[in-house]
Design goal:
With 118 residues, the protein is mainly beta.
Length: 118
């Protein structure tokens, strides 16, 4: 059974920081690419950061320079370090894992709420 679980969300003040974690089990984690998505009320889910199985990363323009994605394959975990948070970062954050070759092997977590407010 494949399990994907996000954690680390919560309330932060503008300018503050949070670190999200995405831990997976039941898969060979090292050969999965991982994306962090977010969805704010009334908006579509959007990809904000991605890390490939080889460690290459990409970011949505709105989070570049503020968010950092990283992975620890020994812990089956991907992190999203979020600095200089803004109210518009408020959303539910989801982790998605996709096999680097087989697109049918794709898994989502249930999400973690991030709220940025003073």
């Amino acid at each position: 059974q494949v399990l994907v679980e996000e954690s680390g969300g919560g309330l932060a003040e503008p300018g503050g920081s949070l670190r999200l974690s995405c831990e997976a089990s039941g898969i060979n984690f090292a050969i999965y690419k991982v994306g962090w998505y977010r969805q704010a009320p009334g908006n579509e889910r959007e990809l904000i950061a991605h890390i490939a199985q080889d460690g290459n990363t990409m970011y949505r323009d709105s989070v570049k320079g503020r968010f950092t994605i990283s992975r620890d394959n020994a812990k089956n975990t991907v992190y999203l370090q979020m600095n200089n948070l803004k109210p518009e970062d408020t959303a539910v954050y989801y982790c998605n894992l996709g096999h680097y070759q087989n697109s049918a092997l794709n898994y989502w977590g249930r999400g973690t709420q991030v709220t940025v407010s003073s």
